[in-house]
Amino acid sequence: MNTNQENFLLELLVEEIPARFQVEAIANLERLMVEKLEKQKIKSKNIKTYVSPRRMVFLAQLERQIPAFVEEKRGPQISAPPNVIAKFLQSLGMSLDDCSEKVMDKKTFIVAHIRRPQRHTQDLLPDVVAASIREMQWPKSMHWGPHAFNFVRPIRNILCSFCDELVHIELREINLESKNYTFGHRFMAPGKIFAKNPSEYRQKIKEAFVMVDPIERKNSILAKFARNFSKPGVSVDVPDDLLDEVVGLVENPVVLLGQIPQKFMQLPEEVLVTPMRVHQRYFPVRRDGVLAPFFAFVANNVAEDDGKEIIKGNERVLNARLADALFFYETDLKKPLELHLEDLKKIVFNEKLGTVFDRILRICCVCDFICEEMDLDDDLRELLKRVALLSKCDLSTHMVSEFPELQGIMGGIYAAIQGEDKTVCSVIGEQYKTVDEITSLPGALFSIADKIEIITAFFAIGKGPTGSKDPFALRRSAIGLIKIIKKYDLSLRLRAIIRKTFGLFNFLECDANTVEAATSFIMDRLKIVLKESGISHEVVASVVGCDDDVMPIIAKAEILDQTLKSENGKKLIASYKRSKNILEQFGDFGDCYVDRGLLAEDSELFLVDELEVLEIALEKLEISGLDSDVEFQTKISLCIALEEKITAFFRDILINSDDKKLKLNRIGILVKLTSIFERFLPEIVKISVEGY
Amino acid sequence: MKGFQEIIFLLSGYWGAYGCAILQPYDMEVGAGTFSPHTFLRALGSGIWKAAYVQPSRRPADGRYGENPNRIHKHHQFQAVIKPSPDDIQDIYLKSLEVLGIDYKRHDIRFVEDDWESPTLGAAGLGWEVWCDGMEITQFTYFQQVGGFNCSPVTVELTYGLERLAMFLQKVDNVYDLNWNGKDGSEKITYRDVCFQQEVEFSKYSFEQADVEILKRHFEDAERECVRLAEKQLPLPAYDQCMKASHLFNLLDSRRALSVAERVDRIARVRALAKICCKTQLDTENINRRG
Q: pLDDT, tens digit, for every residue of A541-589?
């Protein structure tokens, strides 16, 4: 180790920092410390940072001294007025003799050479640390006591030491001075812990029952899970987000196991799991994949009685919640889902848009529109209508009133129990899930109907999103809508369906503008989806709007994107551009056409022949009835095939011929070439105009 | 066995010894101890303040006709408020749990993020719910805003849910089984003896019988009166009317008499009243206070 490197230790002790902020917070502190050390030219190495609910720790080795050095400071140009130069020198207390000249960008500047003396890190650290603490950013912060200082939660202690000596830091605004000690685990070792350097800190804080390293806490929890649930077939559900949260809730993780009374095990899995995970941060246990009557949880305390009381307390809390859930479940089961429609007639969805029941009726109609449009069979149509009718019935069940996160899921479960068709149940259960979680075509179709209804409804009453305001999350709905269409490769003329949906609001006057607004709102989301999948802005701009149907647009975008990435495609665009540029040079040349008799050279003759063949081929293609993406791809391939002839033409032919007739004839060839693009591949034209 | 009342005695004794003025419950219907002017209006302005009190809190929609072991329409909060919040407030709070007999060597106490926001009061604070063995026993909040006004200095508010705390300490699973007076046998008075009838009757009242038209009329009256009194520079009487409006809103809500939009509208109206009261309180900070 470099003898000039010395140990640095900083620990901020804070009242419990919310778990969700911890990781970002310590990264923020590290960034600020590093930035400020660098600014002071203090060399650092072996930086280590840790975060726990109560602590942010920064450990490093820092150079003891910053050697003397000469700083070059650029002043005004040598040609600047004398008073400007004098001012510069005066501000540094230097004379022109201490300066040199330096040429940069063909200008000559005065450069001052400032001698910076050797400095001691010890003297600089108080400002470095205090400024880092002051500048920390939080998603949510607070004031406390009489102080005008913002932090995530009150700071209670600063432990800071360098070269085994206390670094004296004063945060006057909260009346706090740094100390050479901190405090251990809140309950297991609440006394003062003195530490002079990182290694002493690590050892003593560990002895004080604190694992400062979140990775160590995480691994410790996972290891304890593995030990507790080592029997074959036994496993524990450990979702990453829950584990990370729990890691941020404890300094000394203790894994304990609670029991669930058998009478609750008849509840559906989701009903058991939701209060466990969401409300209590418990980890469900499984045996052979099925929920077992146990739950694992992580306490912060090693208790004298091995956690018996802690377990009992936690069991009591979960039992109370599950007792509620069981009561709701049994009560809900007494009432068939359809009977909830009566309740939904009383729940106002929106003053102008009526009740939830009114909405269900509209979704039924939109399902119908989609089936007509896609020419789907009657069975599917009936199935979707059944789904639509029952879909929102769980909103007025006791269970969903108590656990809103179970909406949809409960509908699916209750529908299954009353013997509905399996697909009907699964579609009801999936309705609020993301695109990836939708598993069937009926699910996709219902989701589309649901989303079209809600987007159209709010546009109908003039409540489409504006600026950053999107209170009904219509943007998310529209993006979901497009992703589903894409995933299931569905052909739907959106404008037509939206127009029909608007017709359902017979109490409102919807003009063509409103239909257009809703359609282009969805098409704008299509642009976002395309860009997310890596398609360039130019391609997106050139294809969206050319069709009412989403899939052909996506297909076109993908073909065009591929074309533009290929060598041939690039050449094709370049040829069109070149022709267009040349034509622009000649300005207004009046009408011109190609006279075959004037074709003197092979290269122009060949090109004209090919252009004629191409034009006929393209015309035939347009009436061939091929799928639009195949048609588009073929058009591009045909044009690309012409490339060689175009290249030869540009290579061999002098357009600006002295012979005026030849010149006009050759311009005529270019006009023909560009007009073919403009007529058959407007997308390419659009891209080349917008400067690809 | 620590009776329900003994928990109140212990907390009152502890916070009284700490220096809080031990107050009596505010004599009006409120939804939470925070609504009491002893907390809400005191959180404004520059003065210092230390107080603790029990506040019976009415939440009409939580009534369950005495049938649910955990849900009740009127529960009891023990509230301690201190302004400015002391540096060692977490330790001071934890000592109060020790006084109740909670042994940290056998239990798991946790401070879990829970930011508090009251749309009807235009109030917000940051803090935690305190968990004891997975059960929330206290709301711990540093007030940041009240009635839309920033709090400086900051008031810390500790709200103990007395029923939950008692159920935890007495190890009972049904609130009605709580021992109220700490006696045994024939001398024992339970929570059921004290509160059951009111739970049944007030559930009937708030879900079935409360007259919606009368409630609406009273709401309008309270609203008008609140504004008028605030104009007369009388923040406390004005705020009484604001609390009334808030409770009337809760009753209308439990009667399911409000559409979504009406609900939003009335919440905004109560918030506007709270704001007027806070403004009046701040405007009159230097008068009316000490006589």
A: 888 876 778 888 888 888 888 888 888 888 888 888 888 888 888 777 6
Is residue B161 located within the same domain as residue B112?
yes
Judgement on whether residues B141 and B228 belong to the same structural domain of the protein: no
**Domain termination residue (choose one: B182, B205, B228):** B205
- Cβ-Cβ contacts under 8 Å, A346 against chain B: 256
Same domain, B117 and B78: yes
**Residue with token string 């063949």:** A613
DSSP state of B287: S
**Residue of A16, A143, A186 lying closest to B128 (CB–CB):** A16
The reply to whether ipTM tops 0.90 is yes
Please give the backbone phi and psi of residue B24, each rounded to the nearest 5 degrees, phi first: -95, 160
Residue B290 lies in a domain: no
**Domain assignment of residue B118, given as a range:** 4-205
- pLDDT at position A1 is 44
Give the position of tokens 């290694």: A199
CB contact set of A115 (below 8 Å; sequence gap of 6+): A68, A70
B-facing residues of A in 338-357 (CB < 8 A) are 346, 348-351
Mutation for testing the A interface, residue in B113, B116, B145, B254 having most A CBs under 10 Å: B113
Q: Are residues B17 and B147 in the same domain?
A: yes
Contact B134 A297 (CB under 8 A): yes
Residue A400 in tokens: 């969903």
Number of domains in chain B: 2
* Residue ranges, chain A, pLDDT below 70: 1-3, 507-510, 546, 589-590, 689-692
Least CA distance to B170: which residue of chain A? A313
Mutate to test the interface with B, among A143, A244, A309, A324 (most CBs of B within 10 A): A143
Do B139 and B242 belong together in one domain?
no
Contacts of A466 (CB under 8 A, 6+ apart): none
* Lookup: tokens for A401: 């009133």
List % helix, strand, coil for chain B (3-state, nearest 5): 45, 20, 30
Beta-strand relationship, A348-350 and A290-299 = unpaired
Give the three-state DSSP class for B139: strand
Facing B134 at nearest CB: one of A146, A153, A314: A314
Dihedral, A640, A646, A648, A649 alpha carbons, nearest 10: 170
Over the stretch B29-87, which tens digit does the pLDDT of each residue have? 999 999 999 999 999 999 899 999 999 999 999 998 998 888 899 999 999 999 999 99
* B27 & B139 share domain: yes
Distance of CA B24 to the CA centre of its chain: 13
Q: Is B265 on the interface with A (CB under 8 A)?
A: no
* Record: contact A140-B126, CB cut-off 8 A: yes
User: Domain check: are B188 and B233 in the same one?
Assistant: no
Whether residues B135 and B217 share a domain: the answer is no
Query: Chain B 102-161, CB below 8 Å of chain A: which residues?
Result: 104-113, 115, 125-126, 128, 132-135, 142, 144, 151-154, 156
Cross-chain residue pair A146–B84, CB shorter than 8 Å: yes
Query: By the 8 A CB rule, do A519 and A548 touch?
Result: yes
Instruction: Give the model's pLDDT for residue A663.
Output: 83
Check A300 against B134: CB less than 8 A apart. no
Tokens found for residue A163: 């070269």
B81 touches chain A (CB under 8 A): no
Tell me whether A401 touches chain B (CB under 8 Å): no
The token duo for B11 is: 């907390």
Residue A543 and residue A690 in contact, taking contact as beta carbons nearer than 8 Å: no
**CATH label of the domain that carries residue B27:** 3.30.930.10
3-state secondary structure of B129: strand
Query: What pLDDT does residue A242 have?
Result: 96
| Contacting residues of B for A349, CB less than 8 Å apart | 260
Query: Which of residues B157, B182, B205 is at a domain's end?
Result: B205
